[in-house]
Each structure stands twice: as structure tokens, then as C-alpha cells.
Amino acid sequence: MLAGAGAGVAIKLARLMHLNNDYVFDGKEYDVSNLIVTTYVKAKDSVREGEISDRLKEQFRILNRNKPPDIKAGRHCTDPVLCEFYDLCNPGTPAGHVSRRPRIGSKRLERLISAGITSIKRIPADFPLTKRQRRATDSVKSGKPFISPGPEHAWLAGKRYRSC
Ligand code: SF4
Predict the structure, then answer these.
(1) Which of 24, 26, 21, 31 lies closest to 155, judged by CA?
(2) Which of 41, 45, 59, 154 is the most buried (most CB within 10 A)?
């Protein structure tokens, strides 16, 4: 039996719907049956009611504290995404600082900083970056957003939006 049965509902079967991140739009028609996939949730994969209760208690305990947890700023501020509180926890780190470069590994970050390169705009063209990192870095340097030349771009370009 899955979690939720304690609320008086006998759940015999549960399915999780989510976006298929392997789906690639062909630029013509959306294949919704491929874009959205459903997965059966087996009882062995579900979270026990007691576990949910324990997690909630722990979260409320932390939320009720007078002071926030003493966690120092670090890699978790930008990886996997730039935290919305970055400026609060990282005062003195200017916009365009290499540490704000999302998903840059700690080794690469250390290499840049130890070479005296603190601005994304000063990352040399021959500094080893992944294709995506290079693209984002070039975008910061040029001040121009990157727009994929893929089929979705061509599809969007042909669309008109209704105005109210
Ligand atoms: S910036 Fe975000 S992730 Fe980093 S310490 Fe502050 S709250 Fe935590």
C-alpha cells in the first residue's frame, strides 16, 4: 500500500507524470505522448508515511529557529543553479565574477582564481571549457544572449502572438 492510505484513501496504484528530458522537438509537431511520460510508482519505491512525517518535523524545526543554520557560502551557491540569495551570502563578489559561472567545476574555478582571473570576461579563449560553458562565457563577454539555431528557433520565428 502506498503512502496516503493513512488518510483513509486506499491507493492501489500510483503513476508519476513528468517531462521526458530526452525529448527533442523536431520543429514540426509536438509529440505529446513522447514529451510527457508516466511511470508507475511501486510500493517499494514510495516513501513511508513515517519518513514524510520525520522530514516535515525536521523542516519545521529548522524553520522555527531564531537564527538560520550556520552554512558558509560555497560551491552550492552556484551549482547546480545560481541561488537567488547569492548577493546576500556573497557580499563583495561582483556580477560577472568567475564563481558565478554556473556549473564550473571547483578545479577549473581554482585554476582561474589562482591565475588571477576573477572576471568571466577575462577568461582566455584557450582556457579549457565545455562547449556549453564556452557558449555561456562568450555570451557574457559579448553581452548578447545565445539563441539556439536549432529547429525550435526556426519554428518560433514563424509564430505570431495574439495581442489582447
Ligand atoms: S547563497 Fe544560497 S546556497 Fe549559498 S549559502 Fe546563501 S542561501 Fe545557501
Answers:
(1) 26
(2) 41
